[in-house]
Amino acid sequence: MAKANCPLPTSNLSEILDKYKQSPGSLLEILREAQAINGYLSREVLQLIAEELGIPESKVYGVATFYSLFKTTPTGQYIIRICESAPCHIRGAQDVLATIEKTLGIKPGETTPDGKFSLEFTSCLGLCGVAPAMMINDQVFGNLTGDRVREIINSF
Amino acid sequence: MAIYRSHVLVCGGTPCLLKGARTIRNLFQQEINRYQMADEIRVVETGCLGPCDEGPVVIIYPEGVMYSRLQPTDIPKIVEHHLYKGRVVEELVYRERKDSKEISSKVPLEGEKYLDRQKRVVLRNCGRINPDLIEEYIANHGYEALGKVLTELRPEQVVEIVTASKLQGRGGAGFPTGLKWSFTAKTQADRKYIVCNADEGEPGTFKDRLIMEGDPHSIIEGMAIAGYAVGAEEGIIYIRGEYHLSIERMARAIRQANEHGLLGKNIFGSGFSFQIEIRSGAGAYICGEETALIESIEGSRGEPRVKPPYPGVAGLWGKPTVVNNVETLANIAPIILNGPEWFRSIGTESSPGTKVFTMLGDINNQGLIEVPMGITLREIVYEVGGGIPGGKGFKMAQTGGTSGGCLPMEFLDMPMDYDTLSKVGSALGSGAMLIIDDTHCIVDVLKSFMKFFCHESCGKCTPCREGNTRLYEILTALSAGTATKAHIQLMKDLARTMQLTALCGLGQSAPNSLITCLRFFADEIEAHLNGKCPTGVCKSLATQFEAV
Fold first, then answer.
1. DSSP, res B175
2. Which are the contacts of B442, defined by CB distance < 8 A and separation ≥ 6?
3. Helix A43-53 crosses helix A10-20 at what angle (to 10 degrees)?
4. What parts of chain A have a pLDDT lower than 50?
5. Within chain A, how many helices (H) and strands (E) appear?
6. Is B366–A126 a contact, with Cβ atoms under 8 angstroms apart?
7. pLDDT class for B172, splitting at 50, 70, 90?
8. Are residues A16 and A23 in contact, defined by beta-carbon separation less than 8 angstroms?
9. What does the pLDDT look like over B98-150, one tens digit per residue?
10. According to the model, what pLDDT value does residue A24 have?
11. The predicted structure's pLDDT at residue B545
C-alpha cells in the first residue's frame, strides 16, 4: 500500500484534462486514464478533476463510486476479479474462489499484505463458454480449476 | 493478390484464445514454413466458430474440415498429413459428443450447414473471414447494402424495408426495430445519434462479444445504414470496459472503414456523412438499459431515466437517438440485400429471422449457435446442444439470461420466440440458455441469481434496491433452514411489487426466475421450510452464509 503516499502526479493529470476538457461527457474517460496513473482515484485527484471541469466534487465522486472498475482506495498491483454469476456458479466457481482465498489468504474485498493481489467479485464477464472464468487486471482466464488457478496466481 | 490452395482458419474468439489458439496459429505458420508451403497455404485468425467448449478450433478450407481441442503436438501431424499429403487426420476432427447423432466432419462452406439446425445470418462471416481485414468483409458482400441504400433508396424507404422485415431488437426486449427507427426519423432535430448498445452483461450472454470479435464491420455497416435512415451523422458504440479484444477489433475496423471512405464525409459521393466513436463502460450491468447507457455516455452515473420521453425522441444530449443492440445491427445489411420477404421466411410469423443463442451450463456443447426463431427447447438441448453430460437429467432451462424465467421439463417442446416465452413468464431476452441438471438445488441457484441483482441494482428506485436484497435474504434463510411459511408469501408479494413498480427493466425482470420457480418448483422450495434440501446442496451451503 506504499502507493497511498505517492505525490499527486499533477502534470499527467493536467495532460489528461487538457485532452478531454472540450469534449462533453468525457468524465468516464478522464477517470479511467487518471486511475491508470496511480491504480486508484484519490480524494485529491477527484477534487482536482472537479475543479478543472467546473462540476461539483459530489458528481465526480458519485460517478467514481458507481462503476465497479473505478477504485477510490488503493488496491493491489493485480486485481483478481472472479465471476460469480450463475453460469460460473454452476460450473464450480465456488471451488475456484475457495482455492484463491486459501492460496492468497484473503477474502473478496481484501488485499494481500504485500500489496500484490486484491480479490473481488465481478458480474458476468461474457466468458461463459469457458466457465468458470476470471480476470486479472486486463487478462482473462477461463476453464478454471483449483490447480489451474493456483498455477496462474503463481505465474504473477 | 496471391492465390492460396488452402486456408487454415484459426478461431480467434476469446474462448479459443484462452485455450491457446495463438500458440496453435503460430505453430501452424511455423510448420507450414518448414514445408515451404507458405506461398500456397495461408493461416488466418478468424472469428468465433461456435463450439467454444471444444477450443481451440481450426477449420481448413477448401475441404471445410474442422479440428477441435487441438494441442501443440497435434499441429505437425495436421500439417504433414492434411496439408502436405492431403489426408484428413480423422482422430482430431471435431465431432459432436456422444449423446447426440454423429455429424460429418464438414463445416460451413457455402450452402452447407455444419449442424442441420443452424442458419447463419448474423454470424455469416464469423469463422470465415479475418475480422482484421476490411477487404475480406468487402469480398463477402460487405458494404454492398450501404452502397445500395445510399445510391438507390431514400431514407424513408430504408425504414420501410426494416419495418416490413419485422425485425425485433435482439438485446432482450424485442421491440420492433423499424418502428424504433421511424420515431427518430420523424422527429425534427439539428442532431441525431445512432448508439450501438454493446454493453453486454446479462449473465450467460457472450454473443455480442463474439460478433464484435468475429465480424466488426457488420456492425459498422448496420449503424451507417441506420444513420442514413433516420438522418443521424454520428454513431457511438458503447462497449463494456471488460471487453478489451472487442474494443481493439472494433477500433481497427472503424479506422479501416474511414480509410476506405466507408465512414466519414460524403460516403459514396452521396452527400451522406457518418462517423463512429467508441465509448467504453466501467463496470455496471445497468448501463445495458438504454437510458442508463445514455447517462453513462454523457459522463454520469448510469442510472435509468424516467420514460417517456423515449430516447427515439429525446435521448443522448436530449437529441433523438436510436439505441440498437449489436446483433440487431448485424441483421440490417442482409435484410437490405435480400429483402424483407426473405427475412420473414426465416423463423416464425411473429418473430422472424434467426437468433444467436449462447448455450451453457450443464450441456455438452457449450457455445454459440444461430438458429431460426421458433426452435424448441428440446432441439436446443438435445440436438444442437448434444444433451446433458454425465447421464444426468434435465431439471430446468433459464432462458434469456439471469433476468429470464426458469422452465421445467414440461416446456421442452415450447418454441423459442418472443411471444411464446413471455406468455409463460419467461423471456427470450439476450438469448442466453442456461441449462441446469437435476443435481442442482433450486434455492441455491436462485440465490446466485438474486445475489447478482443485489450487486447490480443501481439503487435509484426503492422496489429494485430493497426488493432484491430482501429476496436474497429470504432465499439465504431458506437455504439455512430458518425460513417460515410466511416468507414464501412475502417473496411472492415482493416479486409482484417489483414487476409492477420498478423504474426500469432491471428491477421489473429481476424476480422472473423466482416467480417461475415458485410456480414450477414449489415442492422443492417448500421442502426447505422443514430444513430439507432434496438435492442435498444446501446442507453444505448453510454454513457459508454471507451478506451481500
1. -
2. B396, B406, B517, B521, B524, B525
3. 40
4. 1-7
5. 7, 4
6. no
7. confident
8. no
9. 333 333 333 333 333 345 568 899 999 998 999 999 999 999 999 999 999 99
10. 86
11. 43
Give A101 to chain B, closest Cα distance, Å. Answer: 14
Q: Is the pLDDT of residue B462 over 60?
A: yes
Measured distance CA(B212)–CA(B248) in Å, rounded: 10
CATH says B354-437 is which class? alpha beta
Percentage of chain B modeled with pLDDT above 90: 80
| pTM for the structure as a whole | 0.91
Is B434–A143 a contact, with Cβ atoms under 8 angstroms apart? no
Which residues have C-beta within 8 Å of that of residue B222, sequence separation ≥ 6? B324, B328, B329, B330, B331, B332, B333
pLDDT at B42: 94
> Residue B520 corresponds to which cell in the numbers above?
414450477
- Cβ contacts of A62 on chain B, cutoff 8 Å: 301
**Residues near B138 by Cβ (< 8 Å), separated by ≥ 6?**
B260
Q: Do B434 and A59 touch (CB under 8 A)?
A: no
pLDDT in tens, B275-326: 999 999 999 999 999 999 999 999 999 999 999 999 999 999 999 999 999 9
Sheet strand arrangement including B234-239 = B275-280, B234-239, B193-198, B321-325
> How far from chain centre, in Å, is Cα A13?
19
The side-by-side arrangement of strands in the sheet containing B432-437 is B367-372, B354-361, B432-437, B394-399, B406-408
Task: Please state, in angstroms and as integers, the Cα–Cα distance from residue B440 to each residue in A86, B378, B397, B512, B537, following that order.
Answer: 12, 20, 12, 19, 7
Burial of B370 (0-12, 13-18, 19+ CB in 10 A): buried
User: What rounded mean pLDDT belongs to chain B?
Assistant: 91
At B348-388, the pLDDT tens digits run 999 999 999 999 989 988 888 999 999 999 999 988 888 89
Burial of B186 (0-12, 13-18, 19+ CB in 10 A): middle
CATH class for the region spanning B134-344: alpha beta
Burial B98-119 (b: 16+ CB within 10 A, else e): eebeebebebbeeeeebbeebb
Query: Which pLDDT score, from 0 to 100, does residue A121 have?
Result: 92
Among B206, B317, B434, whose Cβ lies nearest the Cβ of A127? B206
Contact B464/B502 with Cβ under 8 angstroms? Answer: yes
Q: What is the DSSP letter of B390?
A: G
CATH code for A78-154?
3.40.30.10
Q: Do B55 and A31 touch (CB under 8 A)?
A: no
Contact check, Cβ <8 Å, A124/B203: yes
Higher pLDDT, B13 or B159: B159
What CATH fold (topology level) applies to the domain A2-66? Arc Repressor Mutant, subunit A (1.10.10)
Minimal-distance CA residue of chain B relative to A30: B299
What are the start and end residues of each CATH 1.10.10 domain in chain A? 2-66
Name the pairing type of β-strands B58-61 and B6-11: antiparallel
Evaluate whether B67 touches B93 at the Cβ level (below 8 Å).
yes
Residue appearing with cell numbers 413468464: B425
For chain B, the structural domain boundaries read: 6-92, 134-344, 354-437, 442-544
- What's the topology of domain B442-544? de novo design (two linked rop proteins) (1.20.1440)
> Which 8-state DSSP code applies to residue B79?
I
What's the distance, Cα to Cα, between the start and end of chain A in Å? 18
Residues from chain B contacting residue A67 (CB–CB below 8 Å): 281-284, 302
Mean pLDDT along residues B417-443? 91
A83, A68, A155: which is closest to A116 by C-alpha? A155
Alpha carbon separation from B502 to A75, B173, B259, B472 (Å, rounded): 34, 16, 46, 17
